[in-house]
């Protein structure tokens, strides 16, 4: 609200003195008139005053402008429910239409039915929907009341203490005190924590579903406080940004009375809905409250989407309106003509009071309106209610499908959007994320390269090939149950603060989310857990088998570390030993991983800086270790129990120290040296004593093992699986992360020595920088070292230029290391591994202090804070020294290749939109079957719009040499495009195509208006991969395809970066995986595995669409058929608007007699079994083509309804033509035969017959007779002046009635029966064939399905002859899907990179790789040509030029070059 260069104290003085002459708001400058000119832009900030005695008046006047903490998510109140709900319901124009008819029927001159009868259908529909809306809103009201009435401790200014109040009483500026396991009531700036390091631990499961703990730190300057925080001593005002919905972004500063400022960010903000963990007490000041909190601003609720059937249905209702208008016009004209046949006014034409008769035109108009009332049922009002009920039934069966339930996570499918279930059966394009969606998002360390030497970790690779890993987690917990605990731990774990006793910090159950729980339930006599207690800590992730060659070098490097001292000269060293030490230190330190224990509650492990030096010699420690080792031999553990070696090391890590003059920033503790160099590959030492117990004596520490205690296992809580994988890898080499505080991080070396590094600064990872850095002070040399890890495309450009090194030998060595590392990175990427580069830099004390001052200024800035922080980071992260790189495998989910193959057979185009690097995405695409080894893959990487256009034109021209243009189903920008992929399997020698583009190319396409050419090219490609794409680009691609191609789209993802893509598609599916719940909360459906998509679409999608589509068509048929009976009667009653059926019978006909069978049909009918649908995915294409419900099926059903109504009316009419029966006696057989015909028509449409179907149809038929007999026997004057008394009873005694009721339905249904018979016998559609197969016995059905698949399987595409220089043998198609392709590139892949000259014609031009964003010159990579379909490499000067340039690439050009093959 106010951001000024002058003192905040002056502003407070001015405002108090001036008495607040103008009301305050967020846009009102808090400045006096004479000072206003010094302020900056004052419209984007919020000012928060503390609610204490000093600022109470300011707080009262300012906080009133901000939202309170009471939330209200309900739509209605007790007084507004009825009018507001009716107002919303009448937004549906069908309800307005029927309301208009009710009003018309109240006019005496146009009254057809009794007024009450006309109101009944509309009233019933409105009442049912009103009850449903009211129940849903009442549930929201009860939840709001429960939340608002929760209790919290709020500082009371008058009582000078914290008092218990409701959440709804919290105001902006209040001081709030929270304790462990309490939920945070508002967005609060952290000012105090009971943790001595000023840390507060949060669990954000309620917010994003993530169960790993997060750290929040006290605002700088407040961490060194006493035991208690004093609100009255807080004399600062807070300036921050206005409320917004960015969960991970927050900036502001605290202005002190002395005009100094302290900046803060999201690291100090506690968000509403999170839970305090492992922190006894925290105090903060409320920044945002109620609906202005970030959690509430993100809670926009599910987006309403209209299904394709609903849009089609609205169009057909307009056709019905046109039909109704035509019929009413005929009735009006007929009435006028019929009246004109009388020479005098007929006796039924009654004049008004003055003896005047209505003019013929006015009489015809009145009759037109009367006919609308009479024929109103032509518009099916009950259809809307029936559709909602049917969708509820469909969702019920979706929820209860065990095949869509995941036992590991205890999650079944969630349907968050009830109105688009049928769209699941019409999907044409799927847009998928890669990481966590196609893959497990379980990052497994595979291999690494250090100083140009590659370590393949073959033993680790063999371990990962094991199909199923032993659930060591369950076994460990089984062992813990058998152990005896000492007295002090008998009552459960506790966190001790000093000597002040213990307090249990057990996690409360209120914050548990249904996705990932922490409770362990007893089952079958053992403890089992569906998920590991910590994210990213499954056995396959944390158990890393070390490389034998590297293990010895690591041990030597660890010993070398101990020889360092502060007297050692600080000169750069490229020795292998020092680099290996730095490499593993970087893996251990350069992260945000928290250390905790697996016991519940989780206890954070910290080793505070010790002021005491080592008082016990190494020999003494070794003797103690040997004694412990002997005493622990009696313990009988399984192979997974903590080893004695680990136990001894953990003891050494916690030996108390004595006073010394050593530096207090160094904490070196030594334990028994392990003779076993290969440490067990568990997540961390299970024998670690908690750092919070550091006050215990050595005897107390050694007491635990003698009592048989197995110490709780350390676990690493990371915010990303990549970080966890690297820490687990470092631990496998015994570089163990022991503790982390905001100021220090402790690492235990293989020999047991603990090094505590001062953590000077942390530059967190962000998607722009694509790297993370930590600045630490080495405890032995006192050097200030920067450890950096990040994407190879970024780190390689930040390395020190070897040309700047004066030493020639050093320059050669640097170049060699970088070249080898780049080669290894290429190898890792081709194997589908995720790569990270590790680097370091040593800076002087003066340089760091100068940089730190700039950083402090940037943090305290409110305007352009992000830009300033980015600039300071760039100044530090340059001229780095490369240490090495890592390759991490993200394993494919189970069943992904089969699912993709089935979806492709179903005619669904699958695109992958990922932020990963291109090489990794391409190799994952090959391994999951998205791309085939025989495909021709076009890879486009360019920033130039002109170049991009030329490449697209060239690729299109080249493809069209193989293929004919696709069928023109519609037109796009003048181009005729097809909504389906052109068939490329008809010709034996025609390959299929794939397209790979990156984010820069997407920018060129969108900015250069090249969407039409891009879409035209994608129509010929079986798969499209968009790599390095941002969340915005993902959503733009989805919208482009959805809108321009007019196709049904589905997006699936698991992370927050997929939310925009999920919301942009027709159907959004979230995967509840490793990356929280933001994708799930934004989705329409949520599943736990990608393989569930197969049955969800191919089975449930097909069923939902088929059922609902045929039910809608049946409803239209039913209403038109019944209404036409009244229309035909008008030709025999002088177009007077009278009826031959009783009014109540007409009402009952739609509400009761024919309403239940369509509902059962829409919920339970199965045209094809689930087994057949899964075995024959191409059956899904019927939904894509809308075969069940389209314009032709609609009009065919309308014609059938007209024919059946003619038969149902005129057969009884001809039968009773010359008799003297009354009107109702004539109408009763017509009503009966029409009901019989409509129910039998429904029976013919049913593909599945169960006892429920039979009972419903028979019950509806019998209910008609029971209700009619009772009504005709009791209702004598119900509908005066007509009298239906005993009509049905007399009809049942007449044989003619039975003959009419038998013959009429037969004649009416004969054409449809004949048509269905021909369709079943000679039908060529896939659905008809599948229905025949379904009726066969199981063994014959399986044979028929196998025969079908063999016939439909396309002929394999012969491989194009490989050029002589191709070093890669052809890979069989089967092996392609079973493993990662190990070849340097796919045999037919084309790398279509940037033009050298886009004016040359395609087929012979040479492409270059866009090497770095800042370099616009054209650089060619090896063997990257765009050639004709059967051409070899074009000879010429460019070939040698490419080779030369690839050998001597300029600095900064480190984009990985793939050796693509020519065709």
State the main characteristics.
nine-stranded antiparallel β-sheet, alpha+beta, disordered C terminus, ten-stranded mixed β-sheet, 1463 residues
Q: Which helices and strands appear, and what pairs or packs with what?
A:
Blueprint: H1 8-18, E1 45-48, H2 56-63, H3 81-89, H4 93-105, H5 115-148, E2 151-156, E3 161-166, E4 175-179, E5 187-193, E6 199-203, H6 205-208, E7 214-217, E8 237-241, E9 251-255, E10 261-265, E11 269-270, E12 275-277, E13 281-288, H7 294-297, H8 308-340, H9 360-374, H10 382-399, E14 414-415, E15 429-432, E16 439-450, E17 453-455, H11 458-464, H12 472-481, E18 495-496, E19 502-503, E20 521-523, E21 526-528, H13 539-542, H14 548-562, H15 576-589, E22 594-597, E23 612-613, H16 618-631, H17 644-652, E24 658-659, H18 698-706, E25 714-717, H19 721-732, E26 736-740, E27 744-748, E28 754-763, E29 771-777, E30 784-790, H20 792-795, H21 808-830, E31 833-843, H22 845-860, H23 865-876, E32 881-892, H24 896-905, E33 909-913, H25 918-927, E34 936-940, H26 945-960, E35 970-972, E36 975-977, E37 993-998, H27 999-1007, H28 1011-1018, E38 1021-1027, H29 1031-1045, E39 1049-1053, H30 1059-1064, E40 1067-1071, H31 1078-1081, E41 1085-1087, H32 1092-1130, H33 1143-1153, H34 1156-1164, H35 1170-1175, H36 1181-1184, H37 1191-1215, H38 1223-1245, H39 1251-1274, ...
Parallel strand pairs: 15-33, 15-39, 33-38, 34-37, 34-42, 37-38, 39-40, 40-41
Antiparallel strand pairs: 1-8, 2-3, 2-4, 4-13, 5-11, 5-13, 6-7, 6-12, 8-9, 9-10, 14-41, 16-17, 16-32, 18-19, 20-21, 22-25, 23-24, 26-27, 27-28, 28-29, 29-30, 30-31, 31-32, 35-36, 43-44, 44-45
Helix pairs in contact: 3-5, 4-5, 4-9, 8-9, 8-32, 10-32, 10-34, 14-15, 15-19, 16-17, 21-25, 22-23, 24-32, 26-28, 32-34, 32-37, 32-38, 33-39, 34-39, 37-38, 37-41, 38-39, 38-41
């Amino acid at each position: 609200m106010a951001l000024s260069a002058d003192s905040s104290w002056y502003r407070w003085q001015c405002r108090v003195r001036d008495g607040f002459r103008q009301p305050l708001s967020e846009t009102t400058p808090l400045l006096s008139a004479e000072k206003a000119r010094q302020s900056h832009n004052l419209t984007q900030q919020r000012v928060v005053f503390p609610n204490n005695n000093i600022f109470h008046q300011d707080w009262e006047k300012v906080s009133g402008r901000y939202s309170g903490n009471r939330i209200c998510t309900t739509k209605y109140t007790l007084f507004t429910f009825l009018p507001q709900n009716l107002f919303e319901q009448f937004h549906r124009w069908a309800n307005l239409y029927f309301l208009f008819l009710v009003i018309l029927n109240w006019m005496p001159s146009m009254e057809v039915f009794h007024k009450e009868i006309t109101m009944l259908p509309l009233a019933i529909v409105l009442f049912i929907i009103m009850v449903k809306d009211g129940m849903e809103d009442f549930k929201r009201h009860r939840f709001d009341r429960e939340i608002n009435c929760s209790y919290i401790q709020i500082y009371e200014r008058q009582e000078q203490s914290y008092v218990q109040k409701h959440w709804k009483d919290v105001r902006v500026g209040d001081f709030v005190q929270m304790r462990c396991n309490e939920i945070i009531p508002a967005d609060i700036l952290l000012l105090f924590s009971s943790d001595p390091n000023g840390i507060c631990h949060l669990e954000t499961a309620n917010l994003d579903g993530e169960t790993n703990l997060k750290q929040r730190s006290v605002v700088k300057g407040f961490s060194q406080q006493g035991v208690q925080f004093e609100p009255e001593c807080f004399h600062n005002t807070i300036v921050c940004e206005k409320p917004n919905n960015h969960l991970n972004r927050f900036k502001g500063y605290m202005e002190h009375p002395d005009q100094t400022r302290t900046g803060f960010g999201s690291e100090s903000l506690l968000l509403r809905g999170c839970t305090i963990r492992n922190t006894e007490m925290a105090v903060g000041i409320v920044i945002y409250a109620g609906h202005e909190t970030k959690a509430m601003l993100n809670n926009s609720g599910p987006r309403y989407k209209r299904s394709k059937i609903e849009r089609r249905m609205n169009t057909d209702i307009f056709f019905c309106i046109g039909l109704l208008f035509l019929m009413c016009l005929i009735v009006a004209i007929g009435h006028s003509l019929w009246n004109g046949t009388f020479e005098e006014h007929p006796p039924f034409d009654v004049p008004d009071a003055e003896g005047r008769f209505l003019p013929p035109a006015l009489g015809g108009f009145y009759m037109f309106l009367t006919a609308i009332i009479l024929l109103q049922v032509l518009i099916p009002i009950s259809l809307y209610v029936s559709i909602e009920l049917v969708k509820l039934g469909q969702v019920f069966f979706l929820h209860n499908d065990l095949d869509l339930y995941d036992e590991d996570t205890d999650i079944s499918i969630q349907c968050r959007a009830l109105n688009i279930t049928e769209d699941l059966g019409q999907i044409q394009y799927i847009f998928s994320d890669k990481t966590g969606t196609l893959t497990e998002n379980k990052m497994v360390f595979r291999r690494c390269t250090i100083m140009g030497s590659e370590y393949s970790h073959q033993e680790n690779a063999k371990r990962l090939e094991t199909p199923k890993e032993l659930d060591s987690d369950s076994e460990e917990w089984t062992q813990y149950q058998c152990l005896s605990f000492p007295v002090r731990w008998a009552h459960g774990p506790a966190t001790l603060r000093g000597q002040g006793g213990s307090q249990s910090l057990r996690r409360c159950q209120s914050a548990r989310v249904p996705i990932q729980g922490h409770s362990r339930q007893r089952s079958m006599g053992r403890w089992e857990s569906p998920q590991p207690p910590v994210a990213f800590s499954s056995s396959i992730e944390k158990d890393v088998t070390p490389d034998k060659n590297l293990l010895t070098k690591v041990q030597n490097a660890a010993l070398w570390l101990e020889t360092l001292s502060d007297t050692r000269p600080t000169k750069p060293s490229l020795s292998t030993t020092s680099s290996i030490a730095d490499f593993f230190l970087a893996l251990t330190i350069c992260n945000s991983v928290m250390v905790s224990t697996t016991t519940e509650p989780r206890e954070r492990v910290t080793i505070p800086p010790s002021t005491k030096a080592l008082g016990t010699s190494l020999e003494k420690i070794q003797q103690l270790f040997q004694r412990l080792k002997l005493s622990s031999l009696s313990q009988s553990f399984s192979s997974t129990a903590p080893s004695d070696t680990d136990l001894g090391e953990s003891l050494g890590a916690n030996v108390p120290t004595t006073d010394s003059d050593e530096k207090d920033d160094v904490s070196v503790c030594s334990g028994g040296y392990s003779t076993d160099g290969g440490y067990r590959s568990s997540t961390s030492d299970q024998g670690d004593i908690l750092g919070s117990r550091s006050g215990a004596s050595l005897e107390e520490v050694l007491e635990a093992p003698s009592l048989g205690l197995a110490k709780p296992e350390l676990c690493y809580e990371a915010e990303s699986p990549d970080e966890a994988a690297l820490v687990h890898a470092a631990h496998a080499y015994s570089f163990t992360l022991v503790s982390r505080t905001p100021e220090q991080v402790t690492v235990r070396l293989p020999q047991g020595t603990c090094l505590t590094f001062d953590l000077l600064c942390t530059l967190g990872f962000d998607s722009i920088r694509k790297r993370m850095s930590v600045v630490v002070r080495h405890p032995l040399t006192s050097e200030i070292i920067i450890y950096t890890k990040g994407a190879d495309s970024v780190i390689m450009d930040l390395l020190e230029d070897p040309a700047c090194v004066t030493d020639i030998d050093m320059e050669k060595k640097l170049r060699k290391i970088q070249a080898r590392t780049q080669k290894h990175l290429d190898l890792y990427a081709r194997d589908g591994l995720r790569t990270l580069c590790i680097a370091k830099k040593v800076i002087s004390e003066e340089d760091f202090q100068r940089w730190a001052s700039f950083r402090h200024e940037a943090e305290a800035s409110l305007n352009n804070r992000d830009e300033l922080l980015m600039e300071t980071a760039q100044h530090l992260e340059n001229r780095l020294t490369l240490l090495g790189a890592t390759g991490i495998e993200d394993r494919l989910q189970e069943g992904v290749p089969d699912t993709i193959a089935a979806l492709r057979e179903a005619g669904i185009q699958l695109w992958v939109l990922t932020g990963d690097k291109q090489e990794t995405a391409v190799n994952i695409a090959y391994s999951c079957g998205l791309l085939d080894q025989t495909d021709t893959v076009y890879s486009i990487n360019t920033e130039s719009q002109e170049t991009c256009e030329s490449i697209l034109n060239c690729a299109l021209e080249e493809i069209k040499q193989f293929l004919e243009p696709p069928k023109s189903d519609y037109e796009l920008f003048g181009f005729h495009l097809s909504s389906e992929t052109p068939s490329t399997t008809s010709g034996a020698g025609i390959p299929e195509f794939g397209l790979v583009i990156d984010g820069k190319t997407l920018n060129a396409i969108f900015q250069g208006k090249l969407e039409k050419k891009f879409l035209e090219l994608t129509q010929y490609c079986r798969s499209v991969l968009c790599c390095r794409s941002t969340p915005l680009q993902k959503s733009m691609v989805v919208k482009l395809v959805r809108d321009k191609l007019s196709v049904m789209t589905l997006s699936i993802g698991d992370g927050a970066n997929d939310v925009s893509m999920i919301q942009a598609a027709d159907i959004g599916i979230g995967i509840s995986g490793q990356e929280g719940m933001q994708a799930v909360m934004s989705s329409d459906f949520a599943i736990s595995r990608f393989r569930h998509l197969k049955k969800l679409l191919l089975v449930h999608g097909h069923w939902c669409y088929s059922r609902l589509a045929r039910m809608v068509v049946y409803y239209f048929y039913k209403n038109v058929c019944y209404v036409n009976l009244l229309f035909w009667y008008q030709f025999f009653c002088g177009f007077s608007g009278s009826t031959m059926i009783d009014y109540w019978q007409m009402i009952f006909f739609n509400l009761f007699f024919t309403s239940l069978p369509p509902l059962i049909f829409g919920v339970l009918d199965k045209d094809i079994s689930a087994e057949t649908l899964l075995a024959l995915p191409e059956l899904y294409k019927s939904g894509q083509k809308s075969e069940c419900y389209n314009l032709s099926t609609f009009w065919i059903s309308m014609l059938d309804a007209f024919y059946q109504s003619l038969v149902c009316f005129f057969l009884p009419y001809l039968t009773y033509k010359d008799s003297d029966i009354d009107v109702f006696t004539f109408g009763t057989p017509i009503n009966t035969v029409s009901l019989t015909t409509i129910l039998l028509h429904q029976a013919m449409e049913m593909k599945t017959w169960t006892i429920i179907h039979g009972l419903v149809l028979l019950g509806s038929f019998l209910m008609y007779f029971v209700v009619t007999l009772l009504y005709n026997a009791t209702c004598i004057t119900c509908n005066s002046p007509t009298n239906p008394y005993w009509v049905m009873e007399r009809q049942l005694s007449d044989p003619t009635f039975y003959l009419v009721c038998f013959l009429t339905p037969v004649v009416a249904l004969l054409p449809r029966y004949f048509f269905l018979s021909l369709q079943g016998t000679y039908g060529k559609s896939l659905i008809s064939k599948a229905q025949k197969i379904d009726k066969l016995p199981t063994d014959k059905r399986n044979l028929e399905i196998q025969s079908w698949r063999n016939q439909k399987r396309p002929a394999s595409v012969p491989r194009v002859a490989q050029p002589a220089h191709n070093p890669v043998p052809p890979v069989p198609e089967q092996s392609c899907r079973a493993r990662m392709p190990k070849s340097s590139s796919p045999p037919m892949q084309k790398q279509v990179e940037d033009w050298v000259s886009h004016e040359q014609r395609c087929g012979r031009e040479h492409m270059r790789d866009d090497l770095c964003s800042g370099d616009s010159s054209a650089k060619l990579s090896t063997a990257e040509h765009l050639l004709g379909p059967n051409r070899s490499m074009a000879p010429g000067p460019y070939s040698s030029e490419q080779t030369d340039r690839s050998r001597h690439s300029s600095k900064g050009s480190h984009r990985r070059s793939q050796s693509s093959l020519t065709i």
